[in-house]
Specification:
eight-stranded parallel sheet; 376 residues; single chain; TIM Barrel; 15 helices; alpha/beta
Length: 376
């Protein structure tokens, strides 16, 4: 693919894949979960703890960084890696999700997205070419095409229009992408919940030619069954020798189901966002530390966890921190969740290598179903 970016498929178990991505800033074993550091920072978690959790790549956001502190400023300070202190691979989202999430503040035409900055109200025009330029200035290892992401449910007409516009923008992004640094550009499959449009989008993107392919516009309001159906329709039309990235997903169960359908990469704010709101993901299933029953419980969250925060603090203390709105509570539970997601992916990779992925999923779900029992 390039002399510094490549993807190698190591093993398969059914549709589930074990692979390795090589980037200018290091290697990533897949399936991989990318913690989200939207503004070049992980909320309430140090990069040291992100690395120790097992994360090999993180995500940052083009839209937010172009507004503050600015792509040119980051470039002058040595690029996103030097600026933030994260030395591993970075994937940058192009701003397409903000086309949906900031809908009241933007307008879209064939040329560009025009935003009204949520910071100071200034008008900001983001073209496909500018989105690629910003990501070049940031120095990302994996850049994403600019696309239009729309919420579901939506009319077939709106879904088709957004898919066609995203393909036009994909061609423009590819035309200006300079791979001389060894980084990669991924195309994004759109088409909402309409299988025919998704397949058309995937085929057209493969015709344009990208280093990897993402499935966007899911986990935006549709049921899980619809998301999984779309993944199953799209994956057969994506190249075997390119990474497949499901954007913005999701719950631990979403990850297992998607790996089983051939997805290699994920990102989601859920581990840190839910941690900040008192929710811990564990091998017993999710645990809500706000619940009063934890107030007198001296047990750790999980004495077998690799995460120090899960082993070294009692549930009673974590409950107290959450109820008192102490920042430390958000920090510790975010760490717990980042470790859990990385351990889930670590287990999935080992299971694919051993051709026992189905058993791994069954064992993991049995742990969730067993639940978090109260102390004797």
């Amino acid at each position: 693919m390039s002399d510094r970016f490549s993807f190698r498929l190591i093993a398969r178990d059914g549709a589930a894949r074990l692979g390795e991505i090589t980037t200018p800033h290091g290697r990533i074993t897949t399936p991989a979960f990318m913690p989200v550091g939207t503004q070049a920072a992980m909320k309430a978690v140090l990069w040291r703890d992100v690395r120790e959790s097992g994360a090999e790549i993180v995500l940052a956001n083009t839209y937010h960084l172009m507004l503050r502190p600015g792509a040119e400023r980051i470039a002058a300070l040595g690029g996103l890696h030097a600026f933030s202190g994260w030395t591993g691979p970075i994937l940058t989202d192009s701003g397409g999700f903000q086309v949906m999430s900031l809908a009241p503040l933007r307008s879209v035409d064939e040329k560009a997205v025009t935003f009204r900055s949520h910071i100071d109200g200034a008008t900001v025009v983001l073209t496909p070419e500018r989105a690629v330029e910003i990501q070049r200035l940031l120095g990302s290892d994996i850049a994403m095409q600019l696309d239009e992401c729309i919420a579901l449910p939506a009319s077939p007409e709106d879904i088709a229009r957004a898919m066609r516009l995203s393909l036009t923008w994909a061609e423009r992004c590819k035309a200006v992408f300079d791979g001389s640094r060894g980084g990669a550009l991924f195309g994004i499959v759109q088409g909402g919940d309409i299988d025919r449009l998704r397949i058309d989008s995937a085929r057209a993107l493969v015709g344009i030619g990208f280093h990897g392919y993402a499935i966007g516009g899911l986990a935006v309001g549709e049921p899980q069954a619809v998301m999984l159906r779309v993944i199953g329709e799209v994956v057969p039309h994506l190249p075997e020798d390119r990474p497949r990235y499901l954007m913005g997903v999701g719950t631990p169960d979403d990850l297992l189901e998607s790996v089983a359908r051939g997805i290699d990469m994920f990102d989601c704010v859920m581990p840190t966002r839910n941690g900040r709101h008192g929710m811990a993901f564990t091998r017993f299933g999710p645990i809500n530390l706000r619940n009063a029953r934890h107030g007198d419980d001296p047990r750790p969250l999980d004495e077998q966890s690799r995460c120090p925060a899960a082993r070294d603090f009692s549930r009673a203390y974590l409950h107290h921190l959450v109820r008192a709105n102490e920042t430390l509570g958000a920090m510790l539970l975010s760490m717990v969740n980042l470790y859990y997601y990385q351990d889930l992916m670590r287990g999935a990779r080992a299971a694919v290598a051993e051709r026992r992925f189905g058993d791994f999923c069954a064992e993991t779900r049995a742990g969730w179903a067993g639940g978090d029992l109260p102390p004797l």
